[in-house]
Amino acid sequence: MMMAVDLFNTLEHLKEDEFKQFKWYLQQQDILEGYQSIKVTKLEKAERQDTVDVMVKTFHLHGALKVTKKVLEKINRNDLVQSLSDTSSGPEGQSNF
């Protein structure tokens, strides 16, 4: 089962500049169809844990996972997308990503 801690662990793999880019993408309109962007003020001083909390509050866990994967693709960290996919396809079988 996918947990917020899995998102946090994924963000831990980002270098500082990648993490900055990641937060920038979260603030863009239409980063993912049907999901709102996050206000700059909520992410400005946010560390990785805070960022996960804000994402889960904004998108719920399932949405936060989808948004995270989308942003990771944009910043060319497909390796992390892959490891997140491995985490999220747990005993429930097929996931719909």
3D structure, described in words:
Residues 91-97 have low confidence and may be disordered. This protein has one domain (4-88): Death Domain, Fas. The chain is an all-alpha fold and 97 residues long. It is 64% helix and 0% strand. It contains five helices and no strands. It holds the Pfam family PYRIN. This is Pyrin domain-containing protein. Residues 7-90 form the Pyrin domain. InterPro entries: DAPIN, DEATH-like_dom_sf.
Biggest β-sheet, characterized?
A: none
By CATH's scheme, which homologous superfamily applies?
A: Death Domain, Fas
Low-confidence stretches: 91-97
- At CATH level 3, the topology is Death Domain, Fas
Q: Would you count the extended β strands for me?
A: 0
CATH class, anyone? Mainly Alpha
User: Can you write the helix and strand succession as a string?
Assistant: HHHHH
The class by helix and strand makeup works out as mainly alpha
CATH architecture type: Orthogonal Bundle
Number of helices: 5
Using the alpha-carbon principal axes, give the shape.
globular
Beginning-to-end CA distance, first to last residue: 14 Å
Helix content: 55-70%
Protein name: Pyrin domain-containing protein
InterPro entries: DAPIN, DEATH-like_dom_sf
Domain Pyrin: 7-90
Pfam families: PYRIN
